[in-house]
Design brief:
This protein is mainly alpha-helical. The chain is built from 7 helices and no strands. It has one domain: Four Helix Bundle (Hemerythrin (Met), subunit A) (Up-down Bundle), CATH 1.20.120.1760. It is about 70% helix and about 0% strand. Helix 1 packs across helix 3, helix 3 runs antiparallel to helix 6 and helix 4 packs antiparallel against helix 5.
């Protein structure tokens, strides 16, 4: 237990100055999530247009894992801000969940249009992820906290799609193998929806 805690403290110490600079620039609360969504929208447009205009430019897919890492960093910054700067405007949990879902769709759905990629598994996992997010919001109606449990939450889907982006960026000829990655993840997403709904019923 001590090692993970020390690693967490070390990570928080690294994030601390970054969260302070973000707060000084006005990136606090929901604004941080809006900024990430804006970047995701820009990357989405690039992923939708560049492969069609320049079919040989596969390196553009490195943008997907890069933005996913940026979102994880922004999430860590928001947590540190909420903990260490309680006077700052607090993020709205419901709005944050909506912005997270919109960011997911903006980043993941362009893969369905990528040459050689089977669209159905991409759309299926993206939609199931959206349903999992909606199911996780249900406890807010009762005044409880958002439910983040389940085997295929937001970070897990980010990892799956990040791996998919890296695979395609390195070797686009592996696109036909992506269903073997995405379909099991979709099964876990269904289990996540069921698990989260059980806490509401």
């Amino acid at each position: 237990m001590d090692i993970p805690r020390s690693l967490t403290q070390r990570f928080a110490a690294q994030i601390g100055p970054l969260s302070t600079r973000a707060a000084a620039s006005g990136l606090v609360g929901d604004r941080l999530a809006w900024a990430v969504l804006g970047i995701a929208g820009l990357v989405s447009a690039i992923l939708l247009t560049l492969p069609a205009v320049m079919p040989g430019l596969h390196a553009v897919l490195w943008l997907l894992p890069a933005v996913l890492l940026l979102r994880a960093l922004a999430s860590a910054v928001a947590e540190v801000q909420a903990r260490e700067h309680p006077a700052l405007p607090a993020a709205d949990p419901a709005l944050g969940a909506v912005l997270d879902a919109a960011t997911d769709l903006a980043l993941y759905l362009p893969l369905a249009f990528y040459p050689g990629v089977a669209a159905t598994p991409v759309v299926l996992l993206a939609v199931l992820g959206l349903l999992a997010d909606i199911a996780g919001l249900a406890p807010l109606l009762r005044g409880a906290e958002r439910h983040r449990g389940g085997p295929m939450g937001t970070p897990d889907r980010a990892l799956v799609f990040g791996i998919a982006g890296v695979i395609l960026a390195v070797d686009p000829h592996t696109a036909s193998w992506l269903p073997w990655l995405l379909l099991p993840a979709a099964g876990l997403a269904i289990a996540t929806v069921v698990q989260r709904l059980r806490t509401v019923v």
